[in-house]
# Entry
Amino acid sequence: NAGVMQNPRHLVRRRGQEARLRCSPMKGHSHVYWYRQLPEEGLKFMVYLQKENIIDESGMPKERFSAEFPKEGPSILRIQQVVRGDSAAYFCASSPGVTDTQYFGPGTRLTVL
Amino acid sequence: EDKVVQSPLSLVVHEGDTVTLNCSYEVTNFRSLLWYKQEKKAPTFLFMLTSSGIEKKSGRLSSILDKKELFSILNITATQTGDSAIYLCAVTAGNQFYFGTGTSLTVIP
# Structure
């Protein structure tokens, strides 16, 4: 059973471009969480999704950021018009249920030039 | 292969007990070790450890890192039911971030 997969592992964008980060949850997991890793603070929650539904997006900036988890395919975190401050590691986790252990992916490191 | 191993996987204690959670790691280019408390929504950051032998303390929680033996412990004294959670250990190494699978702690009144 493969773990949580994220791609790309590294992504470089210029200011103003779009970044798309993908997360494939573990088999059998229908809950996906996105986090951003900030230096010295650890993980910061962004959004929680179930298949085709956004359950909690309280940690996601209101502008430029969006997330989806379609019926088929991976969950996608999309950042439009990236700025330097978006440079960070973005982690995805999945779980079979909301109270279950979350399993983390290896992360995508986004660098905005 | 780099890895982070936590033990025990789960633990049930009574209120007032003291617990010790373990995290061992095997990574190259170690930078730091982090502890999180994970409740319903998202992990809450507890400690970041980078130096051996220096205890970090926050209330009833404390943690220490041993870089020679490659492990860390998280101690919780006088446990309360609100301490029930999954405790995650993560290690940063180079540009990578590795999580353990967590220790599930249940505190019974």
Notes: Chain B touches chain A at residues 34, 36, 38, 40-43, 45, 48, 86, 90, 95-97, 99, 101-102, 104 (CB under 8 Å). The mean pLDDT of chain B is 89. Chain B has no helices and eleven strands.
